[in-house]
Specification:
Two copies of one chain form a homodimer. Chain A is an alpha/beta fold. Chain A has one domain (2-264): Queuine tRNA-ribosyltransferase-like (TIM Barrel, Alpha-Beta Barrel), CATH 3.20.20. Helix content of chain A is 42%, strand content 18%. Chain A contains 15 helices and 16 strands. In chain A, the strands form five sheets. In chain A, strands 4-14-13-12-11-10 form a six-stranded parallel beta sheet. In chain A, β2 and β3 form a beta hairpin. In chain A, α8 (191-202) packs parallel to α9 (220-230), α11 packs antiparallel against α14 (323-350) and α13 (311-319) crosses α14. Chain A is globular and about 60 Å long.
């Protein structure tokens, strides 16, 4: 399923190939987020054009609307959303803990109220896996307990224990051999709890592992410490997925630590908010300075947006609130991310990943926000 | 510039070819509306795919934002919006009378306040043509006085007189031989005023003529009377453009009367509001009945939307407010309109336009709204 093809001799960075029922994925890979079964603003054809190989969709959202029964009867999520490449669904756990009005976590699962209509819903490992089996993504995730940030140690300790037991039940509930089920390591920013969680989850023998509970409000340094703690504890021959990460600099830093897969709403959300990535940082395209800037958004970029439109036109579209602004911005930002992961793969092959990391921080500073 | 290729022996319907600097247009033709220099939700590549040959953009909007200086310095509207086919700009008159806070119409022109920021702006025939010369569309329009509906006869009479004198001044102000300037006939629903306006405008010898002041609230019967009155008064060898029209049934009826060109926001606006055209009427795709309808929106339609997505998926996208809903709906509705004009052209060639008209009213009833 996953093969490591190259490792950088100077760090933990590696290049691999993920073989899934709907196709191959070159890693390190970034998965655009298609929360509702659509990457906001772009068609599957445009996603192919930007080079995306695999997408993520959210179990929580799709289970609420349109309902996994609709997706299943449509022939599965690939067919429903007309994406013929690999897909990953999350377990729904993160959204339950972040979006829903949370009622009660118990040993067995979570009872919550839908953020859409307030309906009371019960999610357990068995239910999450059943939904994910119905959705039919190539890769699915164990149901986990994602503690918030900050959270007291005893609360995170409970979440780690839930996550381990729920992982075991997720494995037992999984019914489809054509889907890969990944385990999730929790533990917040507590290094010993991360180690405990990694030991407990890897003991279950998943075909691959995710690091969850990051990108929930912790600092970049804390996130780096988490990945640096967990990655060495994961089997080298299994895929490693850092959930919900991140900015371009995060991808660089985390690939150095040995992460293979990422997903994040950042490039697509930024695109809708008129923040566009170029080497050198974020272009706030609504700025007056671009009013008569007739050059492309990013010189040398081969995306549809940069090949056809000027900064002045993009600025105009964003200021007028035109749909096409989000479309063109999303195409560019996703292309930027795909170019970044391609350059990371090349750097690993060349053994120059640490050099890339050193120069990258100057080229693309962290978004101050 | 315009050649009539076929006429239907049983009515005034005709097929023609419009030759413009940016390409050929087969008439009868429907122009998708790109108000702000973008047809809402779709890329130029997608517009080509749906078969659109020519687009309309609005002088009023583009003059306010980003300003015609920006568009001109970008290399003209084609280059600015990355559309390499023919373009038409209106005169701005209609928007001044419908959108702007109108201050004063006088013999010389109109003073109004921008609907965006309240700035006081002066529009005259000379100014409208100068803006349209700067924007650089293949076809531009004389500056006219568009009376509202309903309007008392004396008010419409003044508008007709303004429109004639402003047409003369528009001709005199026009500076670019590569742009075709069309005259506009006004006169509201008063048949004698329509005849007077047609006589006055055609006497000026424009290369083509528009019927303005329709689609402003009058009934379909009143609009039909206007077109039936004016069309026979226009030279047979010149293009005839019915501005702001219309629904599919309107296109059929008006082609029968001898109209060649149409533009309307209906297909694109309907698409954003989840009203999708099929033979048989409008599909209100949000309806519960489509929840598990896994067939295409329209069987036999070759558009990207119908070839790839189900009604159930489209319903889901619209209910979630996803951008892709507007994109896919717009692609389909524009394809539907292009297919309609193609079938009208074929019917003229076959001499069966009146038959098509008879059957069409049952197939696509007027949207009740």
């Amino acid at each position: 399923m996953f093969t490591v093809l190259h490792t950088d001799p100077n760090c933990a960075g590696r290049v691999g190939r993920l073989e899934l029922p709907h196709g191959l994925v070159d890693t390190p890979a970034f998965l655009p987020v298609g929360t509702q079964g659509t990457v906001k603003g772009v068609t599957p054809a445009q996603l192919r054009d930007v080079g995306a190989q695999m997408l993520l969709a959210n179990t929580y959202h799709l289970a609420l609307r349109p309902g996994e029964d609709v997706v299943e009867q449509a022939g599965g999520l690939n067919k429903f959303m007309a994406w013929d490449g690999p897909l990953l669904t999350d377990s729904g756990g993160y959204q339950v803990f972040s979006l829903a009005e949370l009622n009660r976590v118990d040993e067995d699962g979570v009872t919550f109220r839908s953020h859409i209509d307030g309906d009371e819903i019960r999610l357990t490992p068995e239910r999450s896996i059943a939904i994910q089996n119905a959705l039919g993504a190539d890769v699915i995730m164990a149901f986990d307990d994602c503690a918030p940030y900050p959270a007291p140690r005893d609360k995170v300790e409970v979440a780690v224990e839930h996550t381990r037991r729920w992982a075991e039940r997720s494995l037992a509930a999984h019914r489809r051999e054509d889907q890969v089920l990944l385990g999730i390591v929790q533990g917040g920013i507590y290094e010993d709890l991360r180690r405990r969680s990694a030991a407990g989850i890897t003991a279950l023998g998943f075909p691959g592992y995710a690091i969850g509970g990051v990108s929930v409000g912790e600092s970049p340094e804390e996130m780096r410490t988490v990945a640096a703690t967990v990655c060495p504890l994961l089997p080298e021959d299994r895929i490693r997925y850092l959930m919900g990460v991140g900015e371009p600099v995060d991808l660089v830093d985390m690939v150095v630590l040995g992460v293979d897969l990422f997903d994040c709403v950042t490039p697509t959300r930024h695109a809708r908010n008129a923040s566009l990535y170029i080497e050198g940082g974020l272009v706030k395209i609504r700025n007056q300075r671009y009013r008569k800037d007739f050059g492309p958004l990013e010189v040398g970029c081969d995306c549809y947006t940069c090949q056809n439109f000027s900064r002045a036109y993009l600025r105009h579209l964003y200021l007028r609130g035109e749909i096409l602004a989000s479309v063109l911005g999303t195409i560019h930002n996703l292309t930027f991310y795909q170019r970044l992961t391609a350059s990371l793969r090349q750097a690993v092959r060349d053994g120059t990943l640490l050099e890339l990391q050193r120069t990258y921080r100057q080229k693309i500073p962290r978004d101050p926000r």
